[in-house]
Amino acid sequence: MDSAQFETISAGHFRIKGELNFQSVPELWLQNKEELFNEQDRILEIDFSQLNRSDSSGLALLLEWYREAEQKGKKITFINLPEQMIHMAEVCGLDDVLPLKIN
Predict the structure, then answer these.
(1) For the chain, N or C: smaller number of CB within 10 Å?
(2) Among the listed residues 51, 35, 60, the one whose alpha carbon sits nearest the alpha carbon of residue 83
């Protein structure tokens, strides 16, 4: 699977499946921005437990979601990130910026 899928689990809870890469991230952002940020809930949670792989564009997507949530007055949390993404965030110094819930 070389694309990413965005699925609603329940109100305010979403899941990302597949791969986040330079091809899938722009499409994922455009297709799901409205659904994610027009959500009535002020608290949003995005689960990455079924993400197969991500390159640096996946980290850029997290930053964009975080920025958009801040602008809309919402709290967003990213859960179950693969170790690879956590390490990328640490190397870039974003682990203290992004709302990552690390188990």
Answers:
(1) C
(2) 51
CATH 3.30.750.24 fits 4-101, yes or no: yes
For the chain, the domains span: 4-101
Query: Helix, strand, or coil here: 42?
Result: coil
* Spatial CB neighbours of 19, under 8 Å, sequence gap ≥ 6: 1, 2, 3, 4, 51, 52, 53, 54
Query: Each residue of 29-56: pLDDT tens digit?
Result: 888 888 788 767 789 999 999 999 999 9
* The pTM of the whole model exceeds 0.85: yes
- Closest C-alpha to 61, from 43, 41, 81, 42: 81
Question: pLDDT tens digits for 67-93?
Answer: 999 999 999 999 999 998 999 998 988
